[in-house]
Write the structure tokens for this entry.
Amino acid sequence: MASSKQPKQSTVNEELGLKLLQSVREMKARNFARVTEVAPNEVALARQGTGMSQAEFAAALSISKRTLQEWEQGRRSPSGAAQALIRIASKHPKVVRDALA
């Protein structure tokens, strides 16, 4: 029974080796299987419009940088006054930058 598994295991190993070699060739040729593009949301666009870093914008809004990152990545949403400030920042980035800096 051990002899019947030997050729099968060898074939599996060879197939795996060939797949790995093909993957390395594709990586070297920069043929990536998947490209992910993420469009920035309203929060990220508002911050970018002000020209502020995440740390600066978070400090200006009196929130943690992590909270801002959560908003920008869509895992959480701003509420109340933060939503209003973000809308203002979107429409008047220079005014917000000057007022909050």
